[in-house]
Structures are given as C-alpha cells and as structure tokens.
Amino acid sequence: MAEVDFSNVEATAAWFETQNPRVRGPIAGRAALRILANVGTESSELVELLALTSFRCLLVSMVFGPPGNSERQTLQRAARAAVLAADKASMNVNTRSSSTVAFAAARAAAYSPDSALNAKAAVLSTSRSIEKASDSRLYVTALERALSEDTKHSISQLLHRTLWGSVSVPKNIAENHETFLAYLAANDDWAFWRRWYSEMWHGEFTNWDLAIEVALIPDVVWEGEDALAKVAKAIRGIEARLALKSAISKFRDSTKTVVKEEVLVHRGHNNPPELIDEPDHVGRREIVWAAIDALEQEVERDSPDRWIVRRSIDAIANWVSDVLRYFGRKADLTIDQAIRWGVPMGGAYLLANPAQLQRIIEAGKAWLPFVN
Length: 372
Known about the structure:
Elements: H1 9-17, H2 21-33, H3 44-62, H4 72-90, H5 98-111, H6 116-126, H7 136-150, H8 155-158, H9 171-185, H10 191-202, H11 208-215, H12 227-255, H13 280-283, H14 285-298, H15 306-329, H16 335-340, H17 347-352, H18 354-367
Helix pairs in contact: 1-6, 2-3, 2-5, 2-6, 3-4, 3-5, 4-5, 5-6, 12-18, 14-15, 15-18
C-alpha cells in the first residue's frame, strides 16, 4: 500500500474510498486501538460499559484482516450489531472527553469495513481525543505518522506489526495504556481482552480463529449489567472447544506418519507359532477411534450433545486406563514389540502416544462444563 498523508482530511477520505473491507477494518481498528486506553479515564461506573463495547467494536474491525477468512458476511452482521450496541451505550455518556472520543473512534472502526466514511471518522477521531493535552501537536503528529506507516505494509504484515511501529508513543497515551492494563488485570473476566489488547500493542496476536469466534458471540450475551461476566464465560467456552479441536487435529496429524499395516495376531517372544492371550483392549480399540470421531463431530456443531461428549471422553479414558494396566502386567512386553507385531493404527500405536490421548481427554473434560 502507498503511504497516505492523514493530516489531510480530503486525502484520507479519498484513500479509504479506494480500499476494500479487509484493508479499511484493520487500518481504522489499529488507529482506534492506539487511543483505546483513554476510555479508562472515564468515571468508574462507565469504564466497564465503554471498555467492553469498544473492545467488541475494535475486535470485529480487526478480524476482517486475516487472509482466508470465510466469515465475511457473518462478520458484517456482527459489525452492525456492535455499532448498534455502541449507539445504545452512548446514551449513557453526556460528556465530550478524551474517553468518549476514543469510544466514538472504536464505534466508527466497527463500521469501517462497510463504510469508507466511517473508516475516515475512526482515524480522524483519534486526533480529537487530546483536546486538553499540553503536547497535543506532538500527540497528533505521532498518531498521523503511525497511521502513515501502516499504509506502507500489506495487511498480512500489519497483523504482525507493533501498534506504533517506529513511532514513539506519546507520554500521556503510554501512561493511560499502563493504567488501563492494570484496570483489566484486576478482574479475571477481562483476561481475554487484556491479552488481546496487549498482544495487539506488541504485534504478537496470532489466534485469529479465536478472535473471529469471539466477534460472533450472540448479541444477547453482550447485553445486560452482567454482560462482562457472560461474555467472559462464552470466551472460556470457545477457548476450551478450540483447545479440544486442536488436540484432536494434532492427534490426527501424528497418525498420518504411521505406516498402516494389517493387524496381526499377537504372538509371544520372536513371533513363534504359539499365540499369547489377546488383551481385551485390543478388541476395543475401534471404540477409541469411534469416540475420537464423535468428539471431532461435536466440536463442530452449533449445539453439541453433552451426553455424546461425556461418553466419548469416558471411552477414551477407560481404554487408556485398561491398556496401561495390561502393559504394566507384561514385564517382557514393550510397545516397540507390539508395533513390530503390526498394530500401529490400533492398540499399540495409541498406547505409544499416551500424551496425545491424554491431551484429548483433558481438553474434553475442560470443554464439557460449557456444553449444555
């Protein structure tokens, strides 16, 4: 992207008119994020409302940026819902302060993917958030330089770039930033937002799958006096589900490296003619694979079945317990021997990867409380 002079209102408007939603959202979102901490200077009873609503608006503006995002239309609806929520929240604010201007910038950022006019409003609002600052000209110059630097980079690069780039953070913004982080750290319900805000500041945030799902949390969860707690619970549920999904995916990937052989009958020592007793767990290994398949299906459902999730976790846990007891009784039996007998995709392979299965079990148990 070409560098833009954001001190020129007409040039700013013209540039945003030529950009697509994937560019407008992150550029406007990053601009508003730079002054987000100013909402923490509002009166205590309004900070929570302004901060949560601002976070929602800014997150939805930023998630338009990651490549390969297939949720564009759904995110546009989420952006409109965030703007409506911001409009409702603004009825509680009667002052024109740096905090409310920061809030207005976040609101405009949410609508920026849909509207070049709102993208312009978001970036221009940032310079109005310091009317009482003694170093206002330096403040505005820093914001404009940071914006201009952003336009030199592709969106993919921008998502991994520090929020201020090579620009020195103005003193009053830096102070508000630290104060805001302390405010967020005082309540565990802000955990995700504090992490997201801090990692965006340092150019370290990468979990856009999680961010997209948070942006799509239903409107009803964001409403009411207990909105912060409800949203925090919803995010913990999303994190738990994605952790289970990741554990299953890693297990699937690990099985791809194993040669699929015909399962042979277990024989003692160096495969002599005599058979040894086949443990029950070998005959039940298909149950484990079926349980993993079932969990994989449930994590993708909008309304997962709690009974299926619980039974699947129990099936995997019971199998692991059984095989560990069996191998513990067979002093002369090793996993390597079992694999040489030809069960890499069955009991021996599963046993050779107890950590992989244990991750699935633990992730499943962590997700279960969030499944209705």
